[in-house]
Structure formats: structure tokens, C-alpha cells
TrEMBL record:
<keyword id="KW-0663">Pyridoxal phosphate</keyword>
<feature type="modified residue" description="N6-(pyridoxal phosphate)lysine">
    <location>
        <position position="203"/>
    </location>
</feature>
<keyword id="KW-0808">Transferase</keyword>
<keyword id="KW-0100">Branched-chain amino acid biosynthesis</keyword>
<comment type="similarity">
    <text>Belongs to the class-IV pyridoxal-phosphate-dependent aminotransferase family.</text>
</comment>
<dbReference type="GO" id="GO:0009507">
    <property type="term" value="C:chloroplast"/>
</dbReference>
<protein>
    <recommendedName>
        <fullName>Branched-chain-amino-acid aminotransferase</fullName>
        <ecNumber>2.6.1.42</ecNumber>
    </recommendedName>
</protein>
<dbReference type="GO" id="GO:0008652">
    <property type="term" value="P:amino acid biosynthetic process"/>
</dbReference>
<keyword id="KW-0032">Aminotransferase</keyword>
<dbReference type="GO" id="GO:0009082">
    <property type="term" value="P:branched-chain amino acid biosynthetic process"/>
</dbReference>
<feature type="compositionally biased region" description="Low complexity">
    <location>
        <begin position="1"/>
        <end position="9"/>
    </location>
</feature>
<dbReference type="GO" id="GO:0004084">
    <property type="term" value="F:branched-chain-amino-acid transaminase activity"/>
</dbReference>
<keyword id="KW-0028">Amino-acid biosynthesis</keyword>
<comment type="pathway">
    <text>Amino-acid biosynthesis; L-valine biosynthesis; L-valine from pyruvate: step 4/4.</text>
</comment>
<comment type="pathway">
    <text>Amino-acid biosynthesis; L-leucine biosynthesis; L-leucine from 3-methyl-2-oxobutanoate: step 4/4.</text>
</comment>
Length: 355
């Protein structure tokens, strides 16, 4: 076992306990799957409710070829993180918010869902069972991926007769290969991520399959990710494939309002509160491409991406740059949020849950 040592750049506090860590290279973690020790599985039988789940060794699962999730995409996922504090203890960030969002999504996708308590307790059990995989403070976090899927067999189009709630975890670092350096986005003008009345506001698996084509084309051209516009006017910002977007102009910060086609990000919601607490004027409303191109600073938010500064946006072949390096506002919000998530500053928002 390795012993956790304090990260000098973060603090000179010493750990009050010895923490056993998995034997992996903790420096320079990216965002890829590192298999861990345990996953959590809870099933909801036909016509029943979720009752008792169990931890199993992490590994492959068995599904009937006619499972609802495989045939008709009846599936949702969530994403949240656990951080290691400097004293070695572990903090979850707003797990009840993920529980509530999963319930909303399950309602839209015709699935039963775990109660908030079941969700939070199963997350805690899974993280504790895998605690040696929670990175040392400042090296990253444990990404927690809950799945909810129609696992029972169907052939005709109908809700599946059985559901599985599964949680797996993986230690992660920065989502984008750029790290904290600004990312370069391209605005997609043909393909759309979501339509009014569709499923854009829930975290259903199909929303993410639907953006892979545009994302691959963009990546092949050297862009980090794709920014989508509303499908009616092709004029208002929606979101990036993997995160929400914010536009800064002076003391004003604007982000597209939640209106059925945009994912209600938990980091989005947290950053709105953090920005207001720091004295910024924050607006949730329609934000046009013109405003984006005229912004002082642009940044993205998400559980995986945290707060990622945007260095440039390309629209209809024209590239607008926001300058080198991370902008002052993005930097400020990133540091207030992450210090709170890691337990470095007092959690005045009451967002973290200590294990
Ligand atoms: C997250 O930020 O947790 C997500 O689910 C986005 C995903 C594309 C990694």
C-alpha cells in the first residue's frame, strides 16, 4: 500500500490518518476507465420497486439480447464525484441532486427509479467499497457513474419488464486533453442534439450517442468539442456535447435557460450560485451566437469537465479567440468551487456529504 502524502501546492497540513491507496500512477490521471474493485447492482422486478441491492466484484454483466436498453435505448446515466480531503476523508458532492435528476429522467423514459435515500446510500456503499481508488487531494477525483436501464426482455416496443440500477466508479483527472488550458469549440450548424418535446433535458444514453458523429468530425479537425444551437432558430446556444456553457461580459454571466432541450447540470446550477455569491450578475435566458462571439470570456461546466475555459469558438468557418490561458472569471469560479468540493474551504453552501 502507498501512503497518502500532502500535496505541497495545496496545503502544508499533514494527514491525521494513513490512507491505503491503490497502486497506480496517480499523477496525470485523464478521463478513462480504470477498473476498480466493486460495482453495485439493484434490480426492480416486473411491477415491483427497487428494494435491496448488493456490491459485486467489478466486471461484465449479463443481459438478455432483447433487453429494453439494448433494443430501444431505455437507459439513463448519472455522473458525480467523490473527492479526498486533505485529512484523508472522502466528500461526495450533492448526491441528492443526482438522485432527483435520475428520478425526473426515469419518469420521462417510463422507468421506475430508486428513492433519493436508496440512491445516496448505494453511492456511499460503492465509494466506501472502492475507497482506495479515490485519488489523493489535488490529483483528481473518483468519478461515480450510476446507470438505470431496462434490463428485462421485450420484443415489441414497450417498457421493459425489469430494471437494473448499477453503479461503477473510476478515478479520473481532467476530462479534456487540454487539462485546464482553454478548449476550442466548433458550433454545429446542421445536426442537433435535442428538439422541443424530445429528451434533451434528461440524461438518457441516446442523447450522447446522437452527438458522436459531429464530435468525431470536430475532433478530426482539431476541435475539443461541439457546441449545439437550438433547432428552431439555429441562433440560440444550447449546450456542448459533454457540458453546459456560460458567457461572460463585464460583471454579467449568462447561460442558456433550462427549457426542455438542455441538461440541467448540477455543476451548472452550483456555478450559478457560486457566481452570485461572488458578486456577479447571473442570467438564465436565451443566449444568442452573436453574444457568444462578442463575449469577454466563455467557459463550460459539467461534473466531468468541472469548469473548462473556452479559448476559441468557430462558427461558419470564422474563428473568434478569447485570449491565451484561463480567463480571470473562469479561474475564480473554478477555484471557489473545487476548493469547496475538496473540503479545503468551509462548505458554506452545505453541498458536500462526508463519508
Ligand atoms: C458528466 O459530466 O458527468 C457527464 O455525464 C458527461 C459525460 C459526457 C462524461
Amino acid at each position: 500500500p502507498l501512503t497518502l502524502t500532502p500535496t505541497p501546492s495545496l496545503s502544508n497540513a499533514s494527514y491525521s490518518q494513513t490512507v491505503e491507496l491503490a497502486d497506480i500512477e496517480w499523477d496525470n490521471l485523464g478521463f478513462g476507465l480504470q477498473p476498480t474493485d466493486y460495482m453495485y447492482i439493484m434490480k426492480c422486478p416486473h411491477g415491483g420497486t427497487f428494494s435491496k441491492g448488493e456490491l459485486k466484484r467489478f466486471g461484465n454483466i449479463e443481459l438478455n439480447p432483447s433487453a429494453g436498453v439494448l433494443n430501444y435505448g431505455q437507459g439513463l446515466f448519472e455522473g458525480l464525484k467523490a473527492y479526498r480531503k486533505e485529512d484523508g476523508n472522502i466528500l461526495l458532492f450533492r448526491p441528492e441532486e443526482n438522485a432527483l435528476r435520475l428520478q425526473m429522467g426515469a419518469e420521462r423514459m417510463c422507468m421506475p427509479s430508486p428513492t433519493v435515500d436508496q440512491f445516496v446510500e448505494s453511492i456511499k456503499d460503492t465509494v466506501l467499497a472502492n475507497k482506495r481508488w479515490v485519488p489523493p487531494t489535488g490529483k483528481g477525483s473518483l468519478y461515480i457513474r450510476p446507470l438505470l436501464m431496462g434490463s428485462g426482455p421485450v420484443l415489441g416496443l414497450a417498457p421493459a419488464p425489469e430494471y437494473t440500477f448499477l453503479i461503477y466508479v473510476s478515478p479520473v483527472g481532467n476530462y479534456f486533453k487540454e487539462g485546464l488550458a482553454p478548449i476550442n469549440l466548433i458550433i454545429e450548424n446542421e445536426l442537433h442534439r435535442a428538439t422541443p418535446g424530445g429528451t434533451g433535458s434528461v440524461k438518457t444514453i441516446g442523447n450522447y450517442a446522437a452527438v458522436l458523429k459531429a464530435q468525431s468530425v470536430a475532433k478530426a479537425k482539431g476541435y475539443s468539442d461541439v457546441l449545439y444551437l437550438d433547432c428552431v432558430h439555429k441562433k440560440y446556444l444550447e449546450e456542448v456535447s459533454s457540458c453546459n456553457i456560460f458567457v461572460v461580459k463585464g460583471n454579467n454571466i449568462s447561460t442558456p435557460a433550462i427549457k426542455g432541450t438542455i441538461l440541467p447540470g448540477i455543476t451548472r446550477k452550483s456555478i450559478i450560485d457560486v457566481a452570485r455569491s461572488q458578486g456577479f450578475q447571473v442570467e438564465e435566458r436565451l443566449v444568442s451566437v452573436d453574444e457568444l462571439l462578442d463575449a469577454d470570456e466563455v467557459f463550460c461546466t459539467g461534473t466531468a469537465v468541472v469548469v473548462s475555459p473556452v479559448g476559441s469558438v468557430t462558427y461558419l468557418g470564422n474563428r473568434v479567440s478569447y485570449g491565451e490561458g484561463i480567463g480571470a472569471v473562469s479561474q475564480q469560479l473554478y477555484s471557489v468551487l473545487t476548493r469547496l468540493q475538496m473540503g479545503i474551504t468551509e462548505d458554506v453552501m452545505n453541498w458536500t456529504v462526508e463519508l
